[in-house]
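Reply to dn_fold:

You asked what the input looked like. This is it:
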Amino acid sequence: MSEKLIIKGLNPTKGEVTISGAKNSVLKLMAASLLCSDICVIYNVPNLSDVDIMLEVLNELGAKTKYDKKLKKIEIDSTNITSCFASQEYVSKMRASFCVLGSLVGRLKEATVALPGGCKIGERRVNFHIKGLEALGCECAINDGYVKAKASKLRGSIVCFDIPSVGATENVMMASVTADGVTIIQNAAQEPEIVDLANFLKSMGAKIEGAGTSQITITGVRQSDLRGCEYTTLPDRIEAGTFMSIIIASRGSGIIKNIFPNHLTLFTGKLLEMGANIRLIDPNTMEVSNNKRLKAMNFITQPYPGFPTDLQALAMALLCCADGISVVTESLYENRFMHVNELWKMGANIIINKKHAIIKGVECLVGTSVASTDLRAGAALVTAAVAARGETEIGELKHIDRGYENFVEKLHALNIDAQRVSEP
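and this is what came back:
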């Protein structure tokens, strides 16, 4: 059986939605729990297929896990890790699971981890990860689809990335927690999820300064000094941006709860530039509304705090019906315009020129049958569907399930006519 999401467009939103825990953070916290021979409890865990995959990875390594989906809580007991081998069966399905490389090296001084998978949005190299681990004293090699890293002893070092890499920053940060001496990561990724990981590691006993800036300093501690902890994951800024986009596309209104507005400053600024209305009700609650045609605008995706590449497709869906011509430049991933083929089916006027998309807004999109090509493309098609005339059928929902908890229920909470149906 396959499933599809059917959405009837031109129905203004109303109501409220609560944002779940951040997928891109909780997966790394789960990996980091391997560093200590103790029990870690993580709260505000979203019920996602990616979380299930990471649990399989941890179980394969010998951790004991308990996942209470009702309480959104995961308990991970890493006291007796029995393996340093993370197989292709699981790691190839989800790139975030590749971060067990850093935690296994930090814990066992050895790891064999399959090359990562996930959405096919473009080349995502592992050379930065290897460069960082080698600087700490690891011998690394890639053989038969696996990265093998081993060190007799980890030593603090200076690691400088050519460009900020979230995954490499996370892997090096985790490995260096137990290195002898001080490690300085220069040109580090600055995403809020990096800060969340650093705070989690500090709760375990790690010594980390500078997370959220371009330079992170880690002073190594003994592995035996790390302890279990309880920690609550931060809200998902990409999910928040998704529902902001959906509300604006519908020309309705809605209240978004459990949001950290400062994590979306540039994105919010661009939505305001387009003519949307956004105001804070309290520090973690936002009211979003729009009752008119949006204005065209331009943007370039960049590492945080720049425009998030994960929200590029959603912003493009909004621009498809904006007044004027917009230019979107994707500077991070070469295959992140795959959703354009599906937007064309809905009547969008988009020209692709290498890393640039030129969008001439049309009066209205038209509902049709489309398919998600990756996680954020799926969310973008939902955004386009609520702005389209008629009915839109969206297939390949497995991509949406990777990153959005209770998605249909949250659409219903905003008064969107959406049905998830199964068919042979």
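The first strand starts at residue 2 and ends at 8.
Hope that clears it up.
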